Every structure is written in C-alpha cells, then in structure tokens.
Amino acid sequence: MINRVVLVGRLTREPELRYTPNGNAVVTFTLAVNRTRTDKDGNRVADFINCIAWRKTAENIANYVKKGHQLAVDGQITTRNYEGKDGKRVYVTEVLAESVEFLEPRKDARNTVSNEISAPPVKSNNSKPVNQTSDPFARETKPIDISDDDLPF
C-alpha cells in the first residue's frame, strides 16, 4: 500500500504553532491547491487542504512562511478522531507534512529579492538542511569544458 501526497499551493492563513506538553513543536496550516478544471465562469476550482507538521519542520514553517506564500509539501494523508465538546465524535483528515519546500523568494532588509530560496527543504527526520541558491553555477568563474566523449549518449 502507498500513502504519499505531493501538494503545491498557497497558505490561506498564518500558520498556527503550538507546543505539546513534552515540548514538541506542531504547526497547522491550510493550503489552497488549484484543480485542473474550471467552474462555469472559467475560474480555477481550489481545494483547501489541512496540513500538520512537527518538530523543526513546524518551527521553520512558523518562522519563514506567511499567508499567501507558496509551499510544496510532501507527506501522507492521516486520519484521527476525538470526542468534541458536545460529546459527538469528530473525524479529521489532514496531510502530515514530512518535507516542505518554501517556493517564495526571501526578501532582504532593503525589501529586494535575494538569490537564496527562503529556506531549504526540511526533512522531519532532523537531517541538517543545506542552503541552496537559485542558480547552482552562480559562483562558477571559469567555463565548463565538456567534449562529446564526456556525454553518455
């Protein structure tokens, strides 16, 4: 069985960061994801997907992402239920975000776009992220010499 979800969408509201009694960070947010079809007026139809992330991923989302920012989320669908305040059973379906990539460029102090992505992809297994630039060859000063013999085809 496979339970894998990949979403690209925009935040509909500010992320909500909380901490468990054990000190684990947890953030909830909602992504607006456009469908490929349109309505009768030609407008794209959107789904609003509830997402949750834990630990360092949660803190990074809360610190670097705002309403309207675009995110790529890789995770899995989870379901849970609990008893509501009125005594009725409440069922929740959400995406557990295991990896998140921020797709909005970060602005520097002068409010201009910098060359770095706002934050690197974050894995929930607490691997150390590495900053990426939008052009991996931007710091390359000499030309790359490639002959036909170097090509695999």
From TrEMBL:
One Pfam family hit: SSB
Source organism of this protein record: Listeria farberi
Record flagged with keyword DNA repair: yes
GO biological process: DNA recombination; DNA repair; DNA replication
Polar residues: compositionally biased ranges: 111-135
Gene Ontology CC: nucleoid
Subunit architecture: Homotetramer.
Name of protein: Single-stranded DNA-binding protein
NCBIfam families: ssb
Functional description taken from the UniProt entry: Plays an important role in DNA replication, recombination and repair. Binds to ssDNA and to an array of partner proteins to recruit them to their sites of action during DNA metabolism.
Motif Important for interaction with partner proteins location, chain numbering: 148-153
